[in-house]
TrEMBL record:
Top-level lineage group: Bacteria
Name this polypeptide is given: Acyl-CoA thioesterase
Keyword Hydrolase: yes
Residue ranges constituting the HotDog ACOT-type domain according to the UniProt record: 1-109
Amino acid sequence: MNFHTRKWVKPEDLNPNGTLFGGSLLRWIDEEAAIYAIVQLGNQRVVTKYISEINFVSASRQGDIIELGITATEFGRTSITLTCEVRNKITRKSILTVEKMVFVNLGEDGLPAPHGRTEIKYVKDQFKGDIVE
Ligand SMILES: CC(C)(COP(=O)(O)OP(=O)(O)OC[C@H]1O[C@@H](n2cnc3c(N)ncnc32)[C@H](O)[C@@H]1OP(=O)(O)O)[C@@H](O)C(=O)NCCC(=O)NCCS
């Protein structure tokens, strides 16, 4: 699993308990997963269909640097299934896991459309010869 995105937990991200608000984290995950699906399927019209049980494993506090990891576990006909983990960048302690997030590839008519993808594409393979981070 690649942990591409880092976030710095700021005062506006906290709940009244002084720890990271779950809603902020879910927003970050949904956006990160959507970007992952868009890149993998090569289509901007991708929507969240299903998110499985979310396990808030441990709390995060103001000032923590956290990182979001996503990887594809299954390519369907019109869907892609992802799994997600969020952890503390410094201690590597797990903060949240989502076993299954399903995104659906849409056509211009807004209906599910086959994406034709069967495996993870890596940036280095998409832009051979370029140096891409
Ligand atoms: C996404 C949407 C167009 C799919 O419509 P649908 O009639 O359920 O489509 P289908 O039954 O053809 O299913 C499409 C794919 O989703 C999968 N799917 C449908 N329901 C699912 C569920 N509950 N869990 C997991 N996968 C599911 C199907 O297996 C299919 O995948 P496949 O083609 O790879 O086999 C429709 O449900 C929708 O518009 N939902 C709202 C999306 C949204 O607003 N998201 C939040 C903002 S991004």
